[in-house]
């Protein structure tokens, strides 16, 4: 597993920054030449590119540490490959590749960490020490046993004379299969997770919050566009404030954290629906066909899913995706259709006659799909059979989820703490 984290240096003195401007110039030139050559000659492999061009690059910039010739070849090889791929699909916009944005690739000979918050970079003027400003996310990786990979990249921010340092953290992906699953179902106003046989329904009101935010934003825009024109500063300021408030209220990180922690504690994987081109279809089926609402909600669901993915990566929890079709329509026990009366979230199994809450059905079905596909070594919690043959669920808890109001979970870090209160 590898994750990239960006840290900044403080603004550098002019003379020092100039060294990196020069370095970037030489590096860019090498990458440009190499990429053109690679595409023209159809030689996109790094090893071949290096074999063919190394000497030439070294004589071009003898003052540069020799490994820049390597990393420039790697960089160019990646660019050429992606250009050729696009060209093959006839998606390339231009006849020739263009090297617009450049970050300088560094390998283990070109940089080293000299402390927790300082690195050194090899340049044509020797090794240059740099401070980096750590942030919360950076410390998280450090503290959770991630290692720094040998490659890094730096990018110049000319406006503020800073360097952006792209560090890669790696961790060995644990080989063992998950011991179980935590299926998670995303809905308009809740996130439901099935944890060891209990479906927890976390009320979120994401639908209401996101839509409310959207309308407020639009009202501000309309009002200030009329008063001060489209580009007014005051509008930007108010929108920025609104955005900050939205982020503060944004509970998805919290919910992601709670769920991922539960999975991590048990050595389970997380199961979610594979969101396709029209992800929220099932979830918005009952709403008006207002395109706008649709788009806003889609973005919201994706946001929650991404938050869970991000947290899962941080904790090394695997995520399994399953087919989302009919997850709330079929009885997890009998495989028969569940009949919902108009607008009701509770339905009745057409075969067994038992009652099911829509969101509980969804998570049980997600679990079944995960068990059938791939993770077959996992035990089957709550006696649900792995092959899907009908085994009645013993407890009624499965049929009706345990509701967790937002006021409860939003203030606590773990499910235990939430349930205890
Ligand atoms: Zn049934």
From TrEMBL:
Residue stretches making up the Cas12f1-like TNB domain: 301-366
NCBIfam families, per database record: guided_TnpB (NF040570), IS200/IS605 family accessory protein TnpB-like domain (TIGR01766)
Statement: the UniProt record of this protein carries the keyword DNA-binding: yes
UniProt keyword Ligase present: no
GO molecular function: DNA binding
Top-level taxon in the UniProt lineage: Archaea
Region feature (Disordered): 377-402
Pfam hit, one: Cas12f1-like_TNB
Identification of the protein by name: Transposase, IS605 OrfB family
Entries under InterPro entries matching the protein: Cas12f1-like_TNB
Source species of the chain: Thermogladius calderae (strain DSM 22663 / VKM B-2946 / 1633)
Keywords on record: DNA-binding
């Amino acid at each position: 597993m590898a994750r990239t984290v960006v840290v900044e240096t403080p603004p550098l003195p002019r003379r020092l920054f100039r060294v990196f401007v020069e370095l970037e110039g030489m590096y860019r030139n090498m990458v440009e030449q190499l990429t053109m050559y690679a595409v023209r000659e159809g030689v996109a492999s790094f090893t071949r590119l290096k074999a063919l061009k190394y000497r030439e690059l070294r004589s071009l910039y003898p003052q540069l540490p020799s490994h820049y010739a390597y990393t420039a070849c790697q960089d160019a090889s990646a660019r050429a490959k992606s250009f050729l791929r696009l060209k093959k699909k006839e998606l390339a916009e231009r006849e020739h590749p263009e090297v617009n944005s450049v970050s300088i690739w560094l390998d283990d000979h070109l940089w080293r960490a000299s402390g927790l918050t300082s690195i050194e970079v090899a340049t044509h003027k020797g090794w240059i020490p740099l401070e980096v400003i750590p942030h919360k996310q950076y410390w998280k990786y450090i503290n959770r046993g991630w290692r720094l990979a040998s490659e890094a990249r730096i990018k110049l921010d000319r406006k503020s004379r800073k360097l952006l340092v792209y560090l890669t953290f790696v961790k060995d992906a644990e080989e063992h299969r998950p011991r179980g699953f935590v299926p998670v179902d995303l809905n308009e106003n809740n996130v439901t997770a099935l944890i060891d046989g209990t479906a927890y329904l976390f009320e979120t009101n994401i639908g209401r919050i996101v839509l409310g935010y959207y309308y407020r934003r639009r009202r501000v825009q309309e009002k200030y566009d009329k008063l001060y024109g489209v580009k007014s500063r005051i509008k930007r300021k108010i929108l920025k404030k609104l955005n900050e408030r939205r982020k503060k209220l944004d509970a998805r990180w919290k919910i992601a954290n709670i769920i991922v922690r539960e999975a991590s504690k048990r050595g389970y994987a997380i199961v979610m629906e594979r969101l396709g081109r029209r992800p929220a279809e099932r979830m918005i089926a009952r709403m008006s066909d207002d395109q706008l609402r649709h788009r806003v909600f889609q973005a919201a669901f994706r946001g929650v899913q991404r938050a869970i993915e991000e947290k899962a990566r941080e904790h090394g929890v695997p995520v399994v995706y399953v087919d989302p079709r009919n997850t709330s329509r079929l009885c997890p026990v009998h495989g028969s259709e569940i009949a919902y009366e108009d607008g009701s979230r509770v339905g009745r199994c057409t075969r067994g006659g038992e009652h099911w809450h829509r969101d509980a059905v969804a998570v049980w079905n997600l679990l079944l799909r995960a068990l059938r596909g791939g993770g077959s070594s996992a035990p089957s919690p709550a006696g649900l059979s792995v092959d899907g043959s009908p085994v009645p669920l013993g407890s009624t808890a499965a049929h009706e989820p345990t509701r967790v109001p937002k006021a409860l979970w939003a203030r606590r870090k773990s499910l235990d703490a939430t349930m205890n209160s």
